[in-house]
Design a protein that fits this description.
By secondary structure, the protein is α+β, with helices and mostly antiparallel strands. The protein has 2 domains: 35 residues; 85 residues, Immunoglobulin-like. It contains 2 helices and 7 strands; from the N terminus they run ααβββββββ. The longest helix is centred in the first third of the chain and has 15 residues. The radius of gyration is 24 Å and the shape is elongated. The model has no long low-confidence stretch (mean pLDDT 81). This is Heat-shock protein. InterPro entries: A-crystallin/Hsp20_dom, ACD_IbpA/B, HSP20-like_chaperone. Belongs to the small heat shock protein (HSP20) family. Keywords: Stress response.
């Protein structure tokens, strides 16, 4: 796997260290084979709403946990130990425990989750604070900003 040196970017950019860490983490995740289980979709519902759907067939709701910490959404599945021993001719359905992490952009919050037909869907919404929304500045009377004040 080829590695990309991002150090020239650091010399002329300030405050993008989180973005660089995300890129680095994404590149490492692709190389370690963690991308397979459970399969998932990320869907854009509208401009500020998203949904992540994970295929968690065989798991009960109480065997799943969803947690958000420091901008990382973590979904875990821990299968309860089977009480009875089963003998399979073929076992193609994986009931193994898993942990799947998703990095959330700033101001993206989890708004809920539901489980239906073996699919866990997590709703996300980007909630932009008022202070960060664009605002119009009206041009009005002179503020005398350019005049020198006399002492």
């Amino acid at each position: 796997m080829a590695t990309i040196d991002l150090s020239p970017l650091y010399r002329s950019s300030i405050g993008f260290d989180r973005m660089a860490r995300l890129l680095d983490a994404a590149m490492r995740a692709d190389g370690n084979g963690a991308g397979g289980y459970p399969p998932y979709n990320i869907e854009v519902i509208d401009e500020n709403r998203y949904a992540i759907t994970l295929a968690v067939a065989g798991f009960e709701e109480d065997e799943l946990s969803i947690e958000v910490e420091n901008g990382v959404l973590k979904v875990q599945g821990k299968k309860a130990d089977e009480q009875e021993e089963r003998h399979y001719l073929h076992k193609g359905v994986a009931f193994r425990s898993f942990e799947r992490k998703f990095n959330l952009a700033d101001h993206v919050e989890v708004i809920g989750a539901e489980m239906k037909n073996g699919l866990l869907t997590i709703g996300l919404e980007k909630i932009v604070p008022e202070a960060m929304k664009p605002k119009q500045i009206k041009i009005g009377k002179s503020l005398n900003l350019l005049e020198k004040k006399s002492s």
